[in-house]
Known about the structure:
alpha+beta; Alpha-Beta Plaits; 12 helices; lipid biosynthesis; MVD-like_N; sterol metabolism
Amino acid sequence: MGTDGSAWIxxxxxxxxxxxxxxxxWGKRDEDLILPLNSSISVTLDPNDLSATTTVSTSPDFDAxxxxxxxxxxxxxxxxxxxxxxxxxxxxxxxxxxxxxxxITKEDWKHLKLHIVSKNNFPTAAGLASSAAGFAxxxxxxxxxxxxxESFPGELSTIARRGSGSACRSLHGGFVKWEMGKRDDGKxxxxxPLAEHHEWDDLRIVICVVSSRQKEVSSxxxxxxxxxxxxxxxxxxxxxxxxxxxxxxxxxxxxxxxxFAKLTCADSNQFHATCLDTSPPxxxxxxxxxxxxxxxxxxxxxxxSPQAAYTFDAGPNAVIFVPQKSGGALLHRLLYEFxxxxxxxxxxxxxxxxxxxxxxxIDKLEDIRSLERPIESPKRDEGHGELAYLICTRPGNGASxxx
Length: 403
Ligand code: DP6
């Protein structure tokens, strides 16, 4: 404790990215430990564009664990927070804070309380999965503060997994596999890095944030309903995904965009088919989502090979992968078919990296109106505002300390 008995505070700040699955996790075999029915593979998104930043502080003055998410206090009483914090406290070690010289022992951590302040760098209202980045960041930051060392590879990911299954994949950068594991205690259900983001450097990602009016079924309850009622989900987990995981690993190791694209689209479509096969059926995609699928499918068909790949999670937003050289052409098609809502400026409609706008030679709204019709696109209708905005990003690094 403080050498002169005065109050002190010790903190750490870290950042963790969102991730998007290209082979989807949908369905648990153990609800409490969050063990999945199948392995999954994801791409980590550049934390500069989509991440959570979390500061965790401890002080003898704090009398309870507390959490603030995007400036609003949130209760830590839910089972998921309780189990993550317990698992972390159980692994805390003796630490000496370099800045203050304060020494905190393993024993002290049992009683010391935490204040956790977390913020996303993207609008929460956008309906982009933020729980993955949030839980990964919370677990990573607390582990740094408490000096936790992994006693087996992937141990930290088993804790992030207890917060939200997909969170375990956000600890790593690049391309990540969540091994479903076989054990009942979940020790082998871990995230493993497959390749760093710079190993496949020319991949670009455009996220289409679709305006949505309806409240969606949460992933957690949606997948519970699918496990209980969808025969397709069980067939998928047993017969389809194991083969696709192997094929996706091969596509990634060869940087084979064509196979990557086919697998990504097929797996997204099958995931949404299992949602439709659920009773009552769950609809995450809407008409705009389906128009985006149409745009990509038409383009791929007209070129005779995959130019881009789409994937959708538990909501209507599209995530589109494209090789850098075709990024401008993708943006051309998106802006042609989905011009910005009336009165919106270009920099609010296309956010994140400006690389693709530059490749397309667009720097003002009027340029969008004069875009030529892509050969395979239907005649432009006058509909505006189906997309809220676009985020141009790329694969990126995993969780890291900010100091
Ligand atoms: C469609 O990780 O949000 O995004 O484990 O219940 O917290 P819980 O669910 P969550 O589910 C993510 C489902 C998905 C596919 C994926 O990310 O693999």
